[in-house]
Design brief:
The chain is an alpha+beta fold and 128 residues long. 28% of the residues lie in helices and 23% in strands. It has a domain at 51-107. A hairpin with a 2-residue loop joins strand 1 (51-58) and strand 2. The N and C termini lie far apart (76 Å).
Length: 128
């Protein structure tokens, strides 16, 4: 009887352990805000010779980056839609608002093309 009791005890321990290891669904709260919670950028439709490349949001200002014939130009709006600067070159923006110019310089990705001096080179040495 002792063998039967120990077998029964062992089976019940295994059954309890097995049932506690089962998968349970966990409800996970989404961490990203929904589209309704993201504020929209108040931007005006461009009617001039410039094409809008993108917008950068900086504290209480919104910078619109546009492509122009002589390079990029920048327009700056306050968050309530008031025009602070319109169609300034990088140098003009630097003299008018160095803080925003520095922000744009830090946000710029740089050159994406592979010019001859930037082409990747093989850095491995061939062993013979």
């Amino acid at each position: 009887m002792s063998k039967a009791a120990s077998t029964l005890l062992m089976l019940s321990v295994v059954a309890v352990a097995w049932s506690s290891c089962g998968r349970r669904e966990q409800k996970v709260q989404p961490t990203s805000p929904s589209a309704a919670q993201i504020p929209q950028i108040p931007t005006a439709r461009e009617t001039g010779p410039f094409v809008v490349i993108g917008h950068l949001e900086h504290r209480d200002r919104i910078v619109t980056v546009k492509s122009g014939g002589q390079g990029p130009v920048y327009s700056v709006l306050s968050k309530d839609g008031k025009i602070l600067f319109e169609n300034l070159t990088g140098e003009q923006l630097k003299s008018e608002s160095p803080e925003i110019h520095d922000f744009i310089e830090a946000a710029t990705a740089g050159q994406a093309s592979l010019s001859p001096e930037l082409k990747p080179t093989l850095m491995m040495k061939t062993v013979r």
